[in-house]
Amino acid sequence: MKVLIYEGSIELVKKSGIGQAIKHQKKALELLNIPYTVNKKEDYDIVHLNTIFPNSLMMAWLAKRKNKRVIYYAHSTMEDFRNSFIGSNLLAPLLKVDYVLL
Fold it and tell me: Which of 12, 26, 53, 78 could crosslink 96 through cysteines, CB 3.0-4.6 Å?
């Protein structure tokens, strides 16, 4: 099994909690001796996605077309997204999660 830690748009998030999460994911895989890559051109079995940027959505779509497993991490909840900027309350329901598929 080889994991792709997708780093699309990493420059936008590398100093944020998402950037730290990506570092922690890599470290966890290293500690468990699980092979991983950050190069989407390499072969992989599972892709880890951490953002909802369009390139991440495209990566999920491409991975599913190749019958790869996709793990999408949520770093915000509907509740903590609400009232964060003008218009956020209109978008907040999109972040509601009723279940998690494993």
Answer: 78
Is there a domain that residue 9 lies in? Answer: yes
Measured CA to CA, the distance from residue 99 to residue 102 in angstroms comes to 10
CA–CA distances in Å: residue 18 to residues 10, 22, 88, 92? 9, 6, 19, 19
Instruction: Give residue-wise pLDDT tens across range 28-77.
Output: 999 999 999 999 999 999 999 988 778 988 999 999 999 999 998 766 67
pLDDT band at 97; cut points 50, 70, 90: low
d(CA 18, CA 36): 18
Q: Could you tell me how many residues make up the chain?
A: 102
Confidence at residue 50, expressed as pLDDT on a 0 to 100 scale:
87
In a domain, 63, yes or no: yes
Structural domain that includes position 36: 3-75
